[in-house]
Write a structure and sequence with these properties.
Blueprint (H helix, E strand, L loop, with lengths): L12 H23 L3 H22 L3 H43 L13 H31 L11 H4 L9 H8 L1 H32 L7 H8 L1 H4 L2 H21 L5 H29 L5 H8 L4 H30 L2 H6 L7 H12 L3 H30 L6
Helix pairs in contact: 1-2, 1-3, 2-3, 4-16, 6-7, 6-16, 7-11, 7-13, 7-15, 10-11, 11-13, 12-13, 13-16
Length: 405
């Protein structure tokens, strides 16, 4: 007895694939036509080009990778004829999108992520939902991505120049990065940020880890109330926290200067570091607490039965297993301190001016395009930290047996 299996029929080329490709081509053509002051011509030309491209690669190029390459080259050459080098780059991207869409539709891959019994409405909603998620991601990431090419602007502008849009090498320069690396107005805040953030992170990690371990014990009374108080700096509006810190740390500064006879500059650094530590502790508590959820308590009891004291048990048994959470919390605390500007304005002085403070001044007073270069560097640092967090997350899952590799 044999069981017959049925596969989804191949979608119609003329009744399904080509019309949708035409709509996508018309939308992209509208963007090009608007730039050329001919939106209607752009829509018509884009739709026709998308139909011809989809028909050609589907009919004569069954191998997808080669078809996408042909689509990118063909559309890139068309863009080169219309707008030069910039059109070549944009056209190649459009060609990749249109050719991928043609294969994705014609081969039925649009049904790959839905059950075989899903109706057409279910398939439409599934792909619409993915499109909405993609648009939200684009909405979130676009303002950050735009800053990166602007940081290489050869002019002192915050907008794209005609030479930049034409991809003319003369429109790009590293002068803003050079100004950041050589200008004392930027180097001193950078130095302050790398002084304040590490010390604030060390305090946050030390106190936050101890607090998370203590609050993870079931016999601690009022754990929920204590946890709510400790993470309140994340919830309370920052301007309110900064105002309260101003009054509290002004008294602390007077004590450090009048009683302990510390210099005003040193007391200023201490106040800012402590204030930033307060902001970073909640992140450490949350990440370490999440790591402790999967911690096996029998390991600490076994260590105690073997004669290990609490301190030795913590460093030899518990700390290695919760280390990914501790480091993750430390990275969040470091980012919080490094990017914070409101508390520094209230608690610190001009001597403790940090990089975000200098960027704030650059926007309000100097209008310095060097801010774009600094922002790009901070984005690169954030990406590296996020990659580190992902590696730590995977390591934590392996240690806790949640993933095999």
């Amino acid at each position: 007895m044999s069981i017959k299996t049925t596969s989804a029929p191949t979608p119609s080329l003329t009744g399904f694939t080509l019309p949708i490709n035409a709509a996508a081509g018309g939308l992209l053509g509208y963007l090009v036509g608007t730039a050329k002051d001919a939106p209607l011509l752009g829509i018509a030309g884009g739709a026709v080009f998308a139909i011809l491209l989809a028909f050609a690669i589907i009919s004569f190029v069954p191998e997808r990778r080669m078809g996408r390459l042909i689509g990118a080259v063909a559309t890139g050459l068309a863009g080169l004829a219309l707008s030069g080098v910039a059109g070549l780059v944009f056209g190649a991207i459009v060609g990749l999108v249109l050719s991928w869409l043609a294969y994705w539709l014609h081969t039925g891959d649009y049904r790959a992520n839905v059950p075989v019994y899903a109706t057409s409405g279910d398939v439409l909603w599934s792909n619409t939902f993915r499109l909405i998620c993609g648009l939200i991601f684009f909405f979130l990431i676009a303002p950050i991505v735009v800053v990166i090419p602007l940081s290489f602007n050869a002019e002192d502008f915050f907008t794209f120049t005609p030479k930049m849009l034409a991809l003319d090498p003369e429109g790009y320069s590293l002068k803003h990065y050079q100004d950041f690396m050589t200008n004392p107005d930027w180097l001193r805040p950078l130095k302050n940020s790398f002084i304040i953030a590490p010390f604030a992170t060390i305090i946050s990690v030390s106190l936050g880890t101890l607090a998370a371990i203590g609050l993870s014990q079931s016999h601690v009374p009022g754990r929920r109330a204590i946890m709510a108080i400790l993470i309140s700096p994340m919830i309370v509006p920052l301007i309110i926290s900064a105002t309260g810190m101003f009054f509290f740390y002004s008294g602390l500064g007077s004590f450090l200067e009048d009683t302990l006879h510390l210099s005003k500059d040193l007391s200023g650094y201490i106040k800012v570091i402590l204030a930033h530590a307060v902001l970073g502790i909640p992140f450490v508590i949350i990440t370490v607490t999440a790591t402790l959820v999967g911690f096996d308590r029998s390991l600490t009891r076994a260590a105690a039965n073997m004669g290990a004291g609490p301190v030795r048990t913590f460093f030899k048994v518990q700390m290695p297993l919760i280390l990914p959470g501790v480091i993750s919390g430390g990275l969040f605390a470091f980012i919080t301190s490094f990017d914070e500007v409101v508390v520094v304005l209230f608690v610190g002085s001009a001597v403790q001016k940090t990089l975000p403070w200098q960027m704030f001044i650059g926007l309000r007073e100097q209008i310095s395009p060097t801010i774009l270069a600094v922002a790009t560097i901070l984005v690169a640092i954030s990406i590296m930290l996020l990659a580190t967090l992902e590696l730590l997350r995977r390591r934590s899952e392996r240690l806790r047996g949640m993933s095999p590799t």
